[in-house]
Amino acid sequence: MSIQLSFSQSGLETNKSIRNKQRVNYIYNITDYITWSHLDNNTAFRIGVFGKDQESLIEEFKKVAAKKRIKNLPVRVVKITNVSEIKDLEIVYIHKRDKLKMEDILPQLTMEEVLLVSENYPFRVSMINFMEFENEFHFDVNVKNINNAGLLVSPQLLTFSIQQQKDWEEIFEKLELEQEVIEEQTNELKELNREIEHQQLQLDAQREQIRLQQRSLVEQLEEIRIRKEELENKLEEINVQQRELARLKRQVGEKSEETTRLTNTLNQQEDTIEYRKRLLMRQKHKALEQEQRILSQVQAINNQEKELDNQLGRLRSQGLLIYVFSIIIVIILALIILAWRQYKRKKRSEAEVRIQNKKLMALNESLDSFVYRVSHDLKAPVINVKNMVSMLKENTEEQENNTLTTKIIENLELSSNRLDLTITDLLELSRIEKVEEEREKVNIQEVFNTILKEYERELKEIGAIVKTSFQDSGTYSSSAELSSVFQNLLTNSIKYRSKNRPLEIVLSTRNREGVTVLDYKDNGQGIDLKKFEGKLFSMFQRFTSDQSISGTGVGMYIIKRLIDKNNGSISLESEPDKGLRYLITLPAKNSLS
User: Fold this and answer.
1) Dist. CA 70–CA 78, nearest whole Å
2) What H or E segment, with its residue span, contains residue 468?
3) Mean pLDDT across the stretch 268-286?
4) Helix, strand, coil share of the chain (percent; to 5)
């Protein structure tokens, strides 16, 4: 009986197919954030896959291409084996195992509008580079290489990528360590299998030798039994002759001379018979001794066979122990890696806490750790969930209409989009907390008019009216952060406008005792201040039960944080269905001058 340790081939193939589906969906999603200028002249969007062993990935690309377009163009997928074929494509995919050097490829793609998507290369040596670790895909983006190829990339793509080399190298080192451990364990298992197979062959050979010896001993025992029967027959004949001679001796006893002669003859015959009898007795004794030796050998062989069975049992137990030991080793290694990761996170957290300002310590303990976990642990799973929902949606379209399944998929899609929006808001919060903008003399009217142009089309569509009155001499603040304040104010006014009347926004400014006062009002849905007292500027706080209005409840919190960073203050007046009014104060001059 042989003992073998093997992996399920069908399970590996299924896992590989799922990974290829995820790769294809990632590349399809990336095209939403990349701009090609020449696609108006194209009849198809071309994707090239480099490598000799990429048939399964190419087949997955073709399956998706039969259902989905890119940039409203049909997708054509080709296999490439030479770097010179890359120029006739929009996207090319390569893997590090194909041993292509980036310095040989990137110069050829200059202004060719070809997006290079690679896998398992070092940090930011490609354009977009993937790496799979712990059943998730991570990627980095090199904007400079993308721009050198004549392509434009949306900044939103950067929020989902790994932006620090140390984060990439940490994951890359863990991936290499995991691959080395798996390779060592695989080699050890193969070596153990070979040793067990060798011992099994030796046991089989010994079993065959014992079987031959047993057959030879059985034949010898049969031959001895036959000889023993022959000897017993001869002894019986001698006994018969002795009785006959005794009878004849008595008959001839009456005749002296003849008797004497016959007696001598009989004596001689009797001596001869006695000699033959002793000879036969010795042969019988030798046969008995030989039979005893054979029986001893049979007993020894039986003992040897039992010992071999015990050895085989020990080998089987040893194989099982090796398998259990291997599993224990894997579990121990997993626990060590987990503990190491926890230790690294703890050390990193301690280092961050030591360098934080005492004024921001309480906020950073709750916000920074949460944003870090979202940006590094949730952004890849969110994309995976969105990809899986897209794949489920495609599969259900091919099957019979199922209202429950469609409703479930729509809820999953709504939840994943809401989580994606939450992550984006949290990343914006992280940027606000960590980036210190330059303070300078800012013209409020210029800043507001610039932001207003971005919302001009949307305000016109809903019939909104915007009134302004600027009577200030400016403020000493950050222009970028003041722009973000106006963006959030306008967004909230549009989002929470009344359904019964056109939106009206009024902004006025004035100077008062060394500060600039901003008075911002709208006639929207308003807020019940008594109901939400103490929660107005809290994070994730929504003030409406209308689920049709999208939002995460972070907008007012961002406004408050930006005003605080610029040494200002903010208050709110509002009643339900009567709109709201923000009173914001900002320093009119540099407090350090």
Assistant:
1) 15
2) strand 465-471
3) 71
4) 65, 15, 25
| Alpha helices, DSSP H, located in 96-142 | 102-105
Predicted confidence (pLDDT) per residue in 305-326, tens digit: 677 677 667 766 666 666 666 6
**Any bridge partners for residue 129, and if so which?**
118, 140
Both tokens of 60, joined, read 């997955």
Contact present, 497 and 524 (Cβ < 8 Å): yes
- Tell me: the pLDDT tens digits for 199-250? 888 888 888 888 888 888 888 888 888 888 887 888 788 778 778 777 777 7
- Say yes or no to pLDDT of 148 above 80: yes
Residues 6+ away with beta carbon under 8 Å from 583? 517, 518, 519, 570, 571, 572, 573
Q: DSSP letter for 294, please.
A: H
Contact (CB, 8 A) for 423 and 382: yes
- Angstrom distance (rounded) from CA 97 to CA 121: 9
Contact present, 113 and 26 (Cβ < 8 Å): no
**pTM (2 decimals)?**
0.39
Q: What is the amino acid identity at position 10? A: S
Cβ contacts of residue 34 below 8 Å, gap of 6+? Answer: 115, 146, 151, 152, 153, 154, 157
At residue 44, the 3 state secondary structure works out as coil
